[in-house]
Amino acid sequence: MQVSALLIATLLFVAAACSPGGDAQEAGVPIDETPAPVVPIRILALGDSYTVGEQVGKLENWPVQLVRKLRIEGQPVAEPVVIAATGWDTGDLMAAIVAADLQGSFDIVTLLIGVNNQFHGGAIEEFETGLATLTDKAIGFADGNASRVLLISIPDWGVTPFAASAPRAEIAAEIDMFNAAVRERAEMAGTGFIDITGISRRAADEPELVASDGLHPSGQMYSEWVELIYPAVIEIVDSID
């Protein structure tokens, strides 16, 4: 029987397409080029009034300003999870963390706590114990990776109008002592440390850095904190990639 030239050509084409060395795309087989879904960066901010943003709008506290800056720079970031309230000391924050029963891990965890321990005359030893527990908890939330945790220094409220009649030099000395404990804990645990206390002390001569209550930071001061915190956060983000 005579086989037509068209049939022979068809058989040769099919054989070439099915051979081990054949190019699937050239053979007309579609390739799935769907990009992998983008997983947003998760940030957990632990603290007190200085983290929740007492006396400023919801968009002016520093965790929200940090997320906004990250997004402007093209980073995919979820809304920050904030566990903080005005008046909390280390014990209050620990109790709130337990009650929150957070699930999953976070890419970045920040901890700013201690001003209320100092304000109420708490012993430095008690603060150090509470800080150590909270730091360990923060590292746990960062999936056990201490390098993804940032401890932040305590601002100096003694320079504010609220403390006009207070012993400012004594307050400054105590704040420095508490912050030395924070820095030491960061070094021992292997976390990052961000010193925003210097910015807070400029409020003595720059009233625009203080909120309307004469005590807490303004949105402008929080913006300056973010400028210090942002590079450390980007370093963490780059290490995740």
Q: How would you portray this structure in words?
A:
The protein is of the alpha/beta class and 241 residues long. It has a single domain (43-240), classed as 3-Layer(aba) Sandwich (Rossmann fold), CATH 3.40.50. Helices cover 46% and strands 9% of the residues. It is built from nine helices and five strands. It has helices at 5-18, 49-52, 62-72, 90-100, 115-119, 124-141, 168-189, 197-201, 219-240, and strands at residues 43-47, 81-84, 108-112, 149-152, 192-194. The chain has a five-stranded parallel beta sheet with strand order 2-1-3-4-5, sandwiched between helices. β4 (149-152), α7 and β5 form a beta-alpha-beta unit. α4 (90-100) runs parallel beside α6 (124-141) and α6 crosses α7 (168-189). It is globular, with a radius of gyration of 27 Å. Residues 5-27 have low confidence and may be disordered.
